[in-house]
Amino acid sequence: MAIHLTKRLSVFATILALVLSMPGIALATPVQLHTTSGVIFAQITKTASYSTLSDINLTPLQRQELQAVRQRRNREIEAILNTSQRAQLNRNLRAGNNMNQALEKLHLQPDQQDFVKAIIQFTNLKMKAISSRHSLTVDYK
């Protein structure tokens, strides 16, 4: 019994070590949930607490990570919206509105607004993490 527990713990520890040491793997290939929508969303508003990501010279891998984060954000927001809201969001974005303006024009229900706000905050944290990793690698060079 103790041998099986030891084996399971060692396998779990190995998996955990791999996941923690390679965070970019989870973001490498985004999956399309709504293949019919085909919408490319604009980047969410810039946060004042860190420099804009377009001002930073990023490696192709970091650009890919940011793109994957944005695509995941878009899929999560799409999952919250109903079909007519998705179509309206499409029209708003194609009319030249940024993501925040397009979402405000949807007149979301309070629970949808809470979900969207949480998704955006989580996305901003991920983007901050990517940019801070970039600044750390630049500082050490």
Could you characterize the architecture of this molecule?
The protein contains six helices and no strands. The termini are far apart. Mean pLDDT is 74; it is low at 31-53. It is mostly helical.
Properties at a glance:
single chain, 141 residues, mainly alpha, 6 helices, elongated
Number of helices: 6
**Count of extended strands:** 0
Percentage of residues in helical conformation:
55-70%
Structural class: mainly alpha
Mean pLDDT: 74
Distance between the termini: 50 Å
**Secondary-structure element order, as H and E?**
HHHHHH
Shape: elongated
How many domain units?
A: 1
**Rg value:** 19 Å
- Strand % is under 5%
What summary fits the major beta sheet?
Answer: none
Q: Which spans have pLDDT < 50 for at least 5 consecutive residues?
A: 31-53
Quick overview of this protein structure:
The protein has 141 residues and is mainly alpha-helical.
